[in-house]
Amino acid sequence: MSLRESLPAIKTELPGPIAKAALEKRAQVIPAAVKSIYPIVIKRGEGAMIEDVDGNVFLDWIGGVGVLNIGYTHPELVAAVKDQADKYFHSMMNITTNPLYLDYAEALGKIGPVRGDAKQVFLTNTGAESDENAVKIAKGATGRPNIIVFSGSFHGRTLLTMTMTSKKAYAIGMGPFPDGVYRAEFPYLYRAPGDLSEAEAISYYIERLESLFDTHSPAKHVAAIVFEPVQGEGGFVPAPLEWVKAVRKICDDNGILLITDEVQTGFARSGRMFVSDYYKEAGCAPDIMTFAKSVAGGLPLAGVVTSKEIMEKVTPGTIGGTFNGNALSCASALKVLEIMQRDDYPAKARHIADIATKKFLEWKAKYPVIGDVRGVGAMLGVEFIKDEKKTPNPELVNAVVASAWKKGLMIESAGTFGNAIRFLCPLCVTDEQLEKGLEILEEALRENL
Question: 282 partner at 20 to 30 Å CA-CA among 88, 91, 111, 147?
């Protein structure tokens, strides 16, 4: 059986002897500030599975934190990159024109669910670069200095995106931070104050957002409102559609641009190519959308898509970068897009979501420690609590994560309180692998109750 079709199999103590030696080397040559969650040293990966240097096989439900929606080493991606490698690796777009950049910009512009008829795409290397450049584009287009972001958000580790990010554990000792970034409350419905209905909670959060115009920045000085359709580090908390509609109206009424950060939610994860596709269908499409992670199957590529009208207002020279639109990454990204459309990866996400959500809801009814199950498509979060007061239970989550990987399942925690398990398995996972992973996860949960 190929690794691609295999199931988890632990053959040594963890970490094994070869992995231990590599981890000792890591401690000497890699900064401890680059945190490591698992003592796993990868040898190879196929589909949703990886084999470590000691021969242990793991089912990966992290996927490089959303990078591997298409899975490890898809053979068509490997072939596309090898073919391009024979021609050239790099051609800086400020010097010569890389046709692959043009082809990808054209392809993504056709499907990018943002307002406007004519679309333009600016490619970067990382999600943080995309988010930072989206803000620069919004400021350049509007001539306004400020932006609004939200509690629970994560946008990156550059100075601006650390400021935009809510969780300041990612920014310890990094200040002072840029001015002009103001924070509203994200509609975290499970933890909405009081005993509010969903409609009442959404009204509450909209009122809190609008109050910033009086207490922090007049609307006429706000260039953009930026949010994640499903918060990643914040605990996989989805933005309610009715809230998005209301935010879209606020933006329209005040000349503010709406930016969706689809760095983690994009490329079929949500059951559509982007969550913003749902927004477009509901009449509340964003003006600007950022993307990254699963763009190129593991090669660094990211970007911003918006209307030509907005992009043309940006002063030449204010956006750019040496490696943006790297030829190898573009070759892989074009093939990723082709495969995802041809093989209907959004449908794969919906299929996975149906199975996983059903099981998670069964657990919620069975185990009082599960307080909430939420998400969009196959981007799901399970929040763990201690009591009826919804006291966060990060200790249980950490124990479950530790137990699961020892059984061959890699999962990761998330959330403002560290009390949610995030589900991000590659969309190529087989039904047998999915069922086995759910079995392991429940075993790990029962062992730690």
Answer: 147
